[in-house]
Amino acid sequence: MRVEVRPYRRPFRQPLQTAHGPWAVREGIILRFEDEQGQVTFGEIAPIPWFGTETLEQARAWCDRFSRNFALEQIDDIPDSLPACQFGFGAARDRVAWVSPARFEMPSLKPPGPLSVCALLPTGAAALEGWQGLWEQGHRTFKWKIGVAALAEELSLFQQLVKAVPSELRLRLDANGGLTGEEAATWLAECDRAPLPIEFLEQPLPPAQILDWLPQVKGQFQTAIAVDESVATFRQLQQVYERVGRQVVYVVKPAIAGDSQRLAHFCLQHRPDVVFSSALETPIGRHQALRLAQALWNQGISKRALGFGVEHWFADDWATLSAEALWAQL
Ligand SMILES: [Mg+2]
């Protein structure tokens, strides 16, 4: 088949604060495959180097190897050091593997059927007002970032937030590795006392520390613990699963977790408690990631709300475009 490659640049409404400084523009690559029958499929390469993926330059260099001609077998040649490329080129094969009745419409924020989308709340005190609009859009699961300000201040905001929202609301807390073990235990105790279900505390400690800490809190709290940064790549997911198994919830970003079919096989084999999440890819990559989530949902895996409620972080209209229209803009 033929493959064409176009880079994209997508500014955030406001720069995202990451552990590696502000992130102002999402950059990646869109792939357009056309087979001998004229059937067109789009894929996306959306690297996040500080999550352990290739850089955009490395992804570009890989794409340059294909002078428009590409065979599906070549997907297997993409090394594990290029997980975003594995995902993007894998789109050409996934279309064949997962053509199912449960196809997603590109523009929809919420996928049809029973899968629901978790919405990201504004950071800090803005969350106290910020949940309402998202609730009216139909979201029922929300994520709030913690570990940003002082512990006492955040605990006080948390107590106000859980009192302010409806009791059917489900809340996830994400510390992005910013807590100490002691602070994480304080948060878990606070979550256990909350008047509504706190679904989990995500990545309380950094990847280098959390695996040694988990045995210390095993069985102590009702609120679940999730890992995200710890399992950015497929290899890390395998390693963490071997160490702690079902003690934690796994937040997996398909767009940077490498070959989607390998990820699907892992999930079918081990049936981990998993949340599929956005890597801030465009609707093209999101569509592919959601298809993976739907395919696994159909197999009884991953009943949790998807971490894809991030379209409002971008100021453009890409979420309303078809894949063809998006491609034409690049
Ligand atoms: Mg996270």
UniProtKB/TrEMBL annotation:
Entry annotated with the keyword Transit peptide: no
One GO BP: phylloquinone biosynthetic process
Assigned keywords, A-Z: Lyase, Magnesium, Metal-binding
InterPro entries associated with the record: Enolase-like_C_sf, Enolase-like_N, Enolase_C-like, Mandelate_racemase_C, OSB_synthase_MenC1, OSBS_N
Protein's UniProt keywords contain RNA-binding: no
A molecular-function term among this protein's GO annotations: O-succinylbenzoate synthase activity
UniProt: Mg(2+) binding residues: D174, E202, D228
Enzyme class: lyase
Entry EC number(s): 4.2.1.113
Active-site positions on this chain: K145, K253
SUPFAM superfamilies per the UniProt record, alphabetical: Enolase C-terminal domain-like (SSF51604), Enolase N-terminal domain-like (SSF54826)
Residue span(s) of domain Mandelate racemase/muconate lactonizing enzyme C-terminal: 124-224
Pathway as given in its UniProt record: Quinol/quinone metabolism; 1,4-dihydroxy-2-naphthoate biosynthesis; 1,4-dihydroxy-2-naphthoate from chorismate: step 4/7; Cofactor biosynthesis; phylloquinone biosynthesis
Coiled coil location: none
One Pfam family named in its UniProt record: MR_MLE_C
Family membership noted in the UniProt record: Belongs to the mandelate racemase/muconate lactonizing enzyme family. MenC type 1 subfamily.
Function: Converts 2-succinyl-6-hydroxy-2,4-cyclohexadiene-1-carboxylate (SHCHC) to 2-succinylbenzoate (OSB).
UniProt protein name: o-succinylbenzoate synthase
Gene that specifies this protein: menC
